[in-house]
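User: Sequence recovery, please. Input:
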């Protein structure tokens, strides 16, 4: 695996509110995510995962600390810099419906991705070829989708369409915040498989956020454990989960019945 830094942070902190109402959602965390690495951020609800994700995405500003992108301090103060940054980082969220404009047909959704990548003036045939390829990457048939609206798809199909978008956009970083918690086990395994394919084929850095340490063990290279805004432990997935040092990690592991057994896709 390449050792080049993709996203890193030093003392990254987010404080909400003031005085009595102050919440330190993320508390002076350090992290180094590398190019092509599959990283999971694991913690219970309220541990600060989504807040950290929003800072990584540049949707909220850090109260303290510094985030670097490709080894340089990230500068996204201006609108233009932000727009540039957002070409390199994409997110998928829990609720796939929130990612789509409900009034746009699916081919418009996919064409938008091609446009965003600078392919606006490509010949129509080429665009269709790209959309067909993206759909087949996630086992969808483009011909069957062209005239549909997102709300006409099943939850599993919507999730897959979301990954087809990522395939077209080819960002450097994909941030997935609990993307599988609303879907059945079968589609979940498929989605995880597709995320790994994205990493393997496109070399994306994937930041996967979950409360499920078993899932993190199964899917990631590196695991960061968050408890109440702090990163209490991190390292290679095997090391953190088979030889945890923090009590919090041990507790998370004890809550998972069969973590030491081989994970196979049908049981995820
Ligand atoms: N916009 C906000 N204003 C105030 N408090 C917030 C806000 N967003 C999150 N928090 C608080 O920050 C803490 C971490 O929340 P969050 O990042 O959503 O955790 P997680 O995603 O791990 O469940 C929680 O205590 C939450 O109530
Ligand atoms: Mg969350």
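Assistant: Recovered sequence (268 residues):
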């Amino acid at each position: 695996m390449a050792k080049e830094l993709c996203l890193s942070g030093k003392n990254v902190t987010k404080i909400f509110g003031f005085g009595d109402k102050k919440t330190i959602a993320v508390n002076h965390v350090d992290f180094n995510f590398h190019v092509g690495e599959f990283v999971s951020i694991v913690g219970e609800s309220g541990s600060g995962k989504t807040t950290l994700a929003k800072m990584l995405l540049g949707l909220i500003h850090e109260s303290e600390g510094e985030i670097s992108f490709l080894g340089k301090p990230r500068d996204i103060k201006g609108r233009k810099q932000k727009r540039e940054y957002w070409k390199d980082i994409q997110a998928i969220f829990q609720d796939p419906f929130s990612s789509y404009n409900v009034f746009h047909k699916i081919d418009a959704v996919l064409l938008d991705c091609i446009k965003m990548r600078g392919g606006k003036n490509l010949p129509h045939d080429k665009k269709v070829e790209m959309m067909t390829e993206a759909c087949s990457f996630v086992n969808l048939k483009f011909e069957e989708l062209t005239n549909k609206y997102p709300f006409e798809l099943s939850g599993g199909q919507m999730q897959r369409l979301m990954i087809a978008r990522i395939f077209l956009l080819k960002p450097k970083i994909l941030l997935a915040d609990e993307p599988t918690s609303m879907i059945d086990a079968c589609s979940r395994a498929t989605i995880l498989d597709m995320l790994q394919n994205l990493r393997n084929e496109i070399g994306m850095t994937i930041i996967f956020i979950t409360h499920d340490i078993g899932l993190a063990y199964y899917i990631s290279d590196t695991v960061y454990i968050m408890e109440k805004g702090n990163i209490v432990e991190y390292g290679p997935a095997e090391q953190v989960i088979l030889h945890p040092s923090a009590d919090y990690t041990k507790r998370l592991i004890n809550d998972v019945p069969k973590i030491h057994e081989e994970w196979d896709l049908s049981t995820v």
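The two ends are 25 Å apart (CA to CA).
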